[in-house]
C-alpha cells in the first residue's frame, strides 16, 4: 500500500468517526424528544381532568409542579451528558492527517 492509499484510509476512518458521532448525537436528540412527548402526555392526562377555556387552580398548580420537575430532570440529564462528553476523547486534527 503506498502512502496516498494509507492517508486516504486514515481520512476515511475520520469520516467514519464523524458519522458515528453524528449518529450518536441524533439518536440522543430523538430519545430526548420521545421523553418530552411522553412526559407531556403523562402530565396532561394527570393535570387536566376537565378541559375548559381556563385552567382551574388545582390544574395550574399541577402543571407548575410538573414543569418544575421536568426542568430539574432536564438539568440533571444535561449535566450527566456533559460529564459523559468530557470523559470521551475529543476529535482532533491529528485523526485526519
TrEMBL record:
Domain Tim10-like: 22-82
Family annotation (Gene3D superfamilies): Mitochondrial import inner membrane translocase subunit tim13 like domains
Pfam families in the cross-refs: zf-Tim10_DDP
Keywords: Chaperone, Disulfide bond, Membrane, Mitochondrion, Mitochondrion inner membrane, Protein transport, Translocation, Transport
Subcellular location: Mitochondrion inner membrane
Signal sequence region: none
Chief place where the protein resides: mitochondrion
Keyword rRNA processing in record: no
Membrane topology: Peripheral membrane protein
Assigned protein family: Belongs to the small Tim family.
Binding partners and assembly: Heterohexamer.
Notes concerning its domains: The twin CX3C motif contains 4 conserved Cys residues that form 2 disulfide bonds in the mitochondrial intermembrane space.
Function: Mitochondrial intermembrane chaperone that participates in the import and insertion of some multi-pass transmembrane proteins into the mitochondrial inner membrane. Also required for the transfer of beta-barrel precursors from the TOM complex to the sorting and assembly machinery (SAM complex) of the outer membrane. Acts as a chaperone-like protein that protects the hydrophobic precursors from aggregation and guide them through the mitochondrial intermembrane space.
Protein name: Mitochondrial import inner membrane translocase subunit
Organism (species): Balaenoptera acutorostrata (Common minke whale)
Annotated gene: LOC103011226
